[in-house]
Amino acid sequence: MNTTTTHSRDEAAFDPVLGVSLYREMVRIRMIEEEIAARYGEEKMRCPVHLSIGQEAVPAGISAALRKTDQVVSTHRCHAHYLAKGGDLKAMLAEMMGREAGCCAGRGGSMHLFDRDAGMLLSLPIVAASIPVGVGAAMAMKQRGEDNVAVIYLGDASVEEGVFHESANFAAVRKLPAIFVCENNLYSVYTPLRDRQPDRPISELGRAHGLHTVEVDGNDALGVYRAATELVAHARSGAGACFMLADTYRWREHCGPNFDNTLGYRTVAEFEDWKGRDPIESLILRLEGKGALDAAERQAMANEITAEITEAFAFAEAAPFPSIATAADNLYAL
Ligand SMILES: Cc1ncc(C[n+]2csc(CCOP(=O)(O)OP(=O)(O)O)c2C)c(N)n1
Asked: Can you name the CATH fold of 4-316?
């Protein structure tokens, strides 16, 4: 199948229980990343950070449609993907602080998050490098006769790499249970999409490769969830690989904790326009409209999440650094 569908907000299909859980997931991701940003200047996290603040709806909606045994691969901007899939927060923060208790024993930093138990296979900082790994995971699932799926997160710049096209072609021709999820935040560092790609929807690339393709509002977590549910069912059934295009927007600088509107590569008006489409605020309005979540309940959730974050930071800060004797462990070659 090779169709392009646009999933719009559908109030009739609005599920308040699911809405509350997606709200919590997005708020948790945002609060964690805001705390990372607030504490970055302490220089305990000595790695680059690529924050997803503003982009929380995609990982929240995707992960809600997945099983624990489904696998995810991600990019340099991976915190939200890892957290939404159930990755361990303490191991993530310890990794960012270079501690032995980190998910890569303190060797990788923020762009190398993985959690085997949660189905977070890996993240890689080289643009598009994780795509063939995700396709390989899908191929292994098919060869083993499992009904799991592999989600491959990619940014809009990834489709400018040849390996994306080879991987998409291979996944399509082998009908692999792979779901490519392209988070289009309109920029590759400071270069806008219009200066890098012709004027056509990125989803046309999915169609061209014969992937079952959908477009979603990447700031609508419920819409992402609905579309993901359909794609996951398609891939799980053996019907073939899929592609989702989700338009969204990064609020902070490409790399680092700050806002960068003074740099001039994007306008303040554009930034404000996207901020007005905040995935969390828009979901609050919809939930309040249904009487599903009031301010006191939101505050109680925030308190719970704050306690979790405080504990996880304290854990990471108290965790030991790796011993010098282990510096050469796990190296392929010296
Ligand atoms: C092969 C390669 N080229 C260049 C870079 C430098 N680089 C790091 S992130 C990035 C932008 C990626 O943009 P996109 O994939 O759209 O993701 P976003 O950062 O917008 O989430 C670039 C060019 C890299 N890491 N790898």
From this structure: Rossmann fold (3.40.50)
